[in-house]
Amino acid sequence: MKVTRKTILIVDDEATNRAYLEALLTSEGYATLQAQDGKMAYDMILAHRPDLILLDAMMPVLDGFELAEQLKSHETTKIIPIIMLTALADRESKMRALQCGVEEFVTKPVDRAELWIRVRNLLRLKEYNDFLADYSHTLEEQVEERTAQLVASYFDSMFSIMRAAEFRDEETGAHIHRIAFFCKELAADLGMPADFIDTIYHASPLHDVGKIGIPDHILLKPGPHTAEEWAIMKTHSALGDSILGHGKGTSPFMMMGAEIALNHHERWDGSGYPNGLKGEEIPLSARIMMMSDVYDALRSKRPYKPAFTHEHAVKIIMEGDGRTQPLHFDPMILDAFKKLSERFRDIFEEHADPSE
Length: 356
Description:
It is built from 14 helices and five strands. The chain has 356 residues and is of the alpha/beta class.
């Protein structure tokens, strides 16, 4: 049974050779295109995407070796099989063609039976490769669709948790959005990969989810806490980690969310809580979160303090005020914050709560 309507590009600078090859191929049911030099052939290949190329080795402008090398170096054209037609029988020429990516050779003058067999076999191989590529693409689309569904499900769960925490705290939805943007900006400036940036953007709003477990009379107390109350208040870090499943066997967002919830009050100099971690013992995500949270807290009104201006908040972070000190922050993140401080101001103003 003949294979029909596959398109074969004939590239040869001799019109008689092209006419002969066209006659052979059309008699077998193939469609043909013709080019008289490598440059013309290259343009036709980009425009028509033939199924196979019959390529003369020796041509003006751009010879067969050079054209083959160009085609095999580009993702969109490297899958098109090439049969090189050549009067060159020496080993060096054949080795050069193989290095350029040519699949088959046919020696001139062309034998009809030999040409037919090689054309048929290469077209069958390409058809199979096209099938595999289409099948792979279909699988990728299915995987992407399922992944998107899972991510959406995780986000639904995360936002439900965040909303529950939000109703029990003085912090607002605006605060949650600002934190996400602050963390994203810092992570990007630090040169973190795209998946880390995306994950911290979605996981950082979970940082204070543990406050769900803090009694109202402590969580909402307008004045300073007693030592006992403060000890209870500090347990929200471990509670958040526990609520998020300790980040084990869950999504990347939940894993990082648990990591941040547990560690975002740790300090670079080891004076934080709950475990007194120091320096790089603290996960990077939590170090980024700590900077973001401190800036937002300084800018926001609290029962125990007024909202500070951007300039005053930056001054406190960079110089200290007794409660907050530069030594509390990772020096690398402190430098990034210094560069990005105006961007922090913009984010805060863009996502300001009406009450702030």
